[in-house]
Request: fold
Amino acid sequence: MKLLWVGAGLAAALGLGVQTARAQQCFATIDGTTVYSSPDAQAVRDAVGAAAPGDVVKVAGVCAGVSGAQVVAIGQPLTLRGGYTLTNWALSDPNAHPTVLDAQQAGRVVYATQPLTLENLIVRGGRWTNPFESGGGVALESAGVISNVVIRGSEAANGAGGGLYVGGPATVTHSALVSNVARYRGGGASFNAEVWIVASAFLSNTVTDFSAGYGGGANFGFSAPATVSSSTFAGNAAGAQAGGARFDNRATLRHVTFTHNIARGIGGAIFSNETHAQDVTFAHNQATVLSTGGAHFNWVTWLTDTTFYSNSAAMHGGGAYFNQSFFGDLAALRNVSFVSNTADERGGGAFAFNQARLEGQGVTFVGNRAQQEGGGLYVSGAADLSEAQFSGNTAGASGGGAFFAQPVTLSVAAFMSNTAQGMGGGALFAANLLAQGPLTFTANAAGVAGGGAHVSATLALSRSAWIGNSAGRGGGLSVAGPVTLSAVTFVGNQAMGAQGFGGGVYAGSAAGLSEAQFLSNTARQGGGMYALGAAALEAVTFTANVALANGGGALLLGTAAISGSAFAGNRALGGSGPAWAGASGEAFAPLAVLAINGSGGGAALFGATIITRSAFIGNSAAEHGGGAYGWGAVGGSGVIWRDNAAARCGGGLHLAGMTVGGRARWVNSLWAGNAAGQGAAVCAAHDGGDDALILLHATLVSPMLVGAEAVRVNAGAVYLTNTLIASHTVGVARLGGAAQVAHVLIGGASAPLSGTVMLAGPLFIGPARFVDVVDYALAPVSLAIDGGAPEGVSADYFGRPRPQGNAPDIGYAESEIVLRRVFAPRAVR
Reply:
């Protein structure tokens, strides 16, 4: 907080230890030779009466009492200067010789109709009661210069300007207005023309009227542009608006402090119609009934290096209220901080209202609180913020850090440790969000949705991160509209509410993600991601995410296209499914989800899905589908399923219901080292009829013998062609539905087939023989070489042409060996 320079005379007036000179004796002179003296203020009146225009009237002592309702009335341009002594009229020293003009509550102290300069004086005890007349202590109808003057304890009982009124241009320097009272405007001072204020203080002044009591410290009228520098407004109060000061014209503020001011209505500290402020502090100001605890800004506003600290409002805008009423108006903030402000309704730190734009660079919102929306910031219009920080803010409803009601552009913004009881712990975006730089959301929390952020409309975002956020759904991010994310990271977020959807992301509509990472997120459903609409994932990794129910890495309800992505170390634990009642008409999950709990360790997929060039590695499920659980036509090509595990069925893939005529076709894919109680690699439990699961050029293997069938068919139709199975005690087990094999090699199985399995082509039984147990490349003597049939697959998993020899090899990879085998395998028909 800035410190006001206190001059010697000011120190005396404020009771800081300087002794007064010759109490109750008044002296005045013009030339230092003729000295007027009196026990009251007559000496001053005599000297003024003898003065010529432009003279300096020098005063000493205490001049008390009125004549004609004023201590002194002046009708010509003069300077009235104190700080003298009878023995020295050459040097004014208000520190050693304070000079007092006192109306003793019987009228005004000074009244002037011509330009007047007041210097080195203490003015006190003025009281003016005429209706709608201004200036309780000093009333200057023309221009005025106030220098090193203290005006205190004066009142305009039925007018404006309790301490001072200036009708013409005014300059106030090194002065103080203290404990003055006005009914209407300007408890300390009221100005009606341009004014310059330097190194001055407005302290403990009051305007009393509840409807028109504006500007407790000072009021600057519509014809009074004001420039204020190095000054303080403290402890002032207004019955209506602007406890510290009201600026109806342009306000230029430099190095100014507004502290502990109070207003019943708008603007605990100030109300300003056009503002240019630099290095200004608003601290501990209050609006007790309406909005704007700190500053209320209308129209064009420019703030630089300004701080709003611990202000409070009974409605909106604890620190500041920006009311840009006309299109084209702008509120521009540079290096502005909002700290520990509170609002009983919206915008704990700041509230921006109406049509124009809020632009901010280097803005900071820390520890602010709103009972409703926008703990740090609430913006109802468009906004453009860069290098912004929101930390430790709280909202009783939504938007803990910020609430944006209209489109917003953000670049290089950070949201940390903000909290909302509703949606958007870090921020709520009710309209589109356009991000032009990295955004980070860390350790934010929301009771309902979007721990880091909630977006109600469209979102397109890149190069951003959500870390350690939590919410009922969408622990990191919740988006109601279409969302496009690229080069984003979600780490350690949680969605553990009654719905508990999407630890990292909850997408309520179509979702497109590329080059995204989901690490160690947790949710009841969809540990990393939960999507209601169509999803397209490209180069996305899901690692070590956890779902207490289904979809450890991701749960996707709509159609999906997944390419170049990886699901590793994700888990579906089971045993903690949420209540599935929707809200606001949203269908959060199909009935199919209700039937499972602990399925889809890597992913749970409930719409038609195509997966290409992707991997499921080391995922686990307490129920079905350690790698993935599919309810629908889930197929793909070039997919690796390695070391996944399920307690029940489908260590790699579990395929459940499909639509009529559905086709789940897998080509050039590898299942290696997967484990399950049933169907170590694949479990088929989809609908019967003309639905089909097709494994074409697939390899289902393990580095050691697995005590379960590789493929289990509980329902539906399963077709295996050009497929290799090894190191499972049973190759294909059919318990229901239908199963058919053709050009299939089964090695190392005590029972290659179990149940009724139709043969539509050769079945080879014998050692598969591999060069390694990583890529499972075929050895030269493998029975799989040239054992397949042409099925229109022109390349293998690695992109090598098929066939390399006389016929395609069985399995996901074509052998590159130069010497191909020349003996025929043993076929069982």
Observations:
- DSSP finds three helices and 90 strands in the chain.
- Residues 1-13, 15-23, 577-588, 818-829 have pLDDT under 50 and may be disordered.
- The longest strand covers residues 245-259.
